[in-house]
Amino acid sequence: MQKNITAKNILVIHGPNLNLLGIREPDIYGTVTLEDINRRLLEMAQATNVQLNIFQNNSEGMLIDRVHATFRDGTEAIIINPAGLTHTSVALRDALAATNLPFVEVHLSNIYARESFRHKSFFSDLAVGIVSGLGYKGYEFALQFFTKS
Hints:
single chain; alpha/beta; Rossmann fold; 5-stranded parallel β-sheet
């Protein structure tokens, strides 16, 4: 049974290559851009009186530094799409574990219906939930989970 988690200060992290959404492999990732996703999330956050901070970077180190910043910025929960780092980054996993913050892992595509190397996530066992294969809606479901809207 999932425990009740409500947050008013949420960090959204978009991993490597997600800045290319809408033009990168649209048959897999769709045609919605990262800007479209962020705009919709910000609208949803405003409607529920939630502070939403959004960060995208292609560098593993910058993503880790942003996770570390949650120790001092009031973040209560994280929505993260680690992208390709899902299957490779013990360091990003360790950063998330160190914060002890609840997080939802989001993937636009169904990672279990793709290449076998994508079937293993270094994050899933720490996540309070995983949304995989529902496209951009996965981010919205994760935000709804934390805001109970």
